[in-house]
Amino acid sequence: MNRVVLITGGGKGIGRATAQLFADDGYKVAVTYRESPPPAGVFGVRCDVADDGSVEEAFAAVEANLGPVEIAVMNAGVTRDELLLRMDEKDFSEVLNVNLTGAFRVAERASRSMLRARWGRLIFISSVVALYGEAGQANHAAAKAGLVGLARSLTRELGARNITANVVAPGFTATDMTAGLADEQRQHILRQVPAGRAASPEEVAAAARFLAGDAAGYISGAVVPVDGGAGMGH
């Protein structure tokens, strides 16, 4: 398991747990981050996925230190939650630029070496809100839903080269981002989850790890929910 894995937004939450899981399994792991440092034992590089130049510099650093990226986990994201009539275009555009276009930038750059190797795994971390929506998250839901169309289009483009493109759709997950929610918001969300609890970042990471492995080689264009039943397969 010495393939090279790049995980964006790997300094905390789901990205950090994913990086740790791959590292524990013996992969050569690189993560991008903006503020929170990556786990010990992985190669970290500062990167803003909203900037083409920053993405190119990050890939150059990873390739120089570890080799060509064979598995890319597009996890970096931001939120700018607000009801539609209070949401300005800047907040809408910023979320799409990071969560959707940023994932495109990373996938496009990663696919170059994958095409040469005729092997690769593209894994997009979406959200259950992409499948059924959420009040106050029109920007976030639109961006995360876009990842599904992106992954399925890439499946048709790249599938013949032994490159898969899949989506993991987490539900409510216990991270620093969700820790800041008011108790009323937290309870509102949990009432919609049949499992009655939040996911751990490690449970989401396990889905990404599975999709990266040889056993998942015939799975592509799929949306894998890790949501305690909240999405019910939407």
Automatic annotation (TrEMBL):
InterPro entries named in the record: KR_dom (IPR057326), NAD(P)-bd_dom_sf (IPR036291), SDR (IPR050259), SDR_fam (IPR002347)
Keywords tagged on the record: Oxidoreductase
Ketoreductase domain: residues covered: 3-166
MF-aspect GO terms: oxidoreductase activity
NCBIfam families linked to this entry: PRK12826.1-2
Family in the record: Belongs to the short-chain dehydrogenases/reductases (SDR) family.
PANTHER family listed in its UniProt record: 3-OXOACYL-(ACYL-CARRIER-PROTEIN) REDUCTASE, 3-OXOACYL-[ACYL-CARRIER-PROTEIN] REDUCTASE FABG
Name of the featured protein: 3-oxoacyl-[acyl-carrier-protein] reductase
Native source organism of the sequence: Krasilnikovia cinnamomea
